[in-house]
Amino acid sequence: MKRALLFCAALSAAPLIYAAEPDVAGLVKSCNNCHGVDGVSVGQSMPSIGGLSETYLLNIMTQWKTGERFSAVMGRLLKGYTDLEIAALATHFSKQPWQPVSQTLDAKLVAQGKDAIERCSSCHGDTGVPDEDDTPRLTGQWAQYMELELLKYRDEALKMPHKKMRTNGKKLDAADVAAVAAHYASQKK
Amino acid sequence: MSINRRNFIKSLAAAGSASLLTIPTTARAAGKGKVVVIGGGFGGSTAAKYIKMMDPAIEVTLIEANKTYTSCPLSNEVLSGHRDIASLQTGYAGAVKRGINVIHDHVASVDAAKKTVTTSGGQTLGYDALVMAPGIAFDYEAVAGYSKEASKLIPHAYKAGEQTLLLKAQLEAMPDGGLFIISVPPKPFRCPPGPYERAAQVASYMKHHGKAKSKVLILDANDSFSKKGLFEQGWKALYPGMIEWVSGANDGKVERVDAAAKMCFTGLNDHKADVINLIPPHRAGKIAQQTGLTNAQGWCEVVPMTMESTVHKDIYPIGDCCIAGELPVYDMPKSAHMAITQAKVAAGAIVAKLNGLANPQPWYVNTCFSTLAPDYGISVVHVYRVTNNQFVYVKEAGGISPIDAPPLQRKLEAEYCVGWFNNVMADAFA
Q1: Does B290 touch chain A (CB under 8 A)?
Q2: Contacts of residue B337 in chain A, CB cutoff 8 Å?
Q3: Do B109 and B191 fall within a single domain?
Q4: ipTM score
Q5: CB contact at 8 A, B109 and B290
């Protein structure tokens, strides 16, 4: 009985809570076009986004929208949405389960990467599970996507605001870029 | 044997989603409604899938003539040899697995009053909602001397598959120093940047296969084109002197062809070519015209909130057959990405209606990548919102890749194009 009452209370409160929330159910589906259903990408250059932290997703989308961070495409999309809508998207995708993708990787490259992650692991962990909410999870993310992200941090021509990523990304040996990406891509949990 | 929750989930996973849809037949036959989808391209396939995903109790039938679908997006890369046509092809097993009834046939007629669809094979299906996604039909007669028959000699290659391979074979057979003409029809046509990307992919083939003295001549019925500045910059950087564009105002409009003699005739000039790629003007697919859904220009107009036809209730024209957007300037491009987002709006509206729920907020977005070389991609983005039941093009958003972008952006966009392709193929067909 007590549970039933609580349930009713929650229901009646719902319209108040959600009144200001934008209806992004349809917008979420348009993200699927590039990032896969439930944010699990099947394209090697496109990141999976389902299960990334809300803080990270909100930060990066806001930086793209304002132009604080370089983006090839995302900024042009996000300028079409309000901050509330973007926040709702971040919340939605953060609630999806993280699903490492299965991908073909060169075992030698993975092994090379394992020995080269010292610049990465202090924030991203040994297996890609970060300590902090503002750091993206890399476990089983697409290797090609991560490699391209590293190229962005290593290119002075692009506006990439994260100082620590800039420094470490650039200090990484060129031959290790694909290797560290392969290492994190190979992780399962 | 006891089935605990974990094993139950495992067995479901092993059996795939089909088991979920085939077991409770009685539950789903409870009269939730019937949807027929005409056309199994990006738009139609996505609509069928999302309706089934949102409400498995709705009966969905997809009618598509072909058993194999060949994607038009990225098919220009078949011409350059950077991509095999098989990588663009898929079947309808994904739809069947989801419990969608797939019928491989043509549609003979639609009765909008009785709400029925009749196939060429004589099957008549009733519907509560009809998704009309037949794509485009070519207006062969608009160019004198051209016809479906003539397209075997001078291919359009604007419906991918056999035509793409035919054009590729002609490109391979042409001599070094030869002329390859691309004739572009008046707007609107599907894939607005398509002909100009094609010019780059054809030039790429010439450059890398001993035909570097050859030329691509684009005879255009229009005076400008999608991503013009970006294309011209890319052509110059990658294929200097190989691609020439002639605007409509500058006698670019092809009025007549002689397929056997490989001649194109514009108002003032005769062009003798080695290969002619003639893209004829488009209209909405024949069945959309026949159903009376099209306007004077040959396109289906739609209600922005739902994608429902402005002519017939309960018919939803999506994809290349429709004309939508903030007209006349900011029309929605006829692209796979646009078709997929329109399909999702129509699916949401249909599911809501059949369940007696309020129509969900519609969202429209487009991304078109063009690949000029394996490490050289450019794009255009469109964001539309619906305000007071009108399409509004969001000017603060969207637009083309910057003209002064660093080389890495061009590489990223070429790579993102492939990632985009893999995801849209899965989104529509898996």
Answers
A1: no
A2: 33
A3: no
A4: 0.90
A5: yes
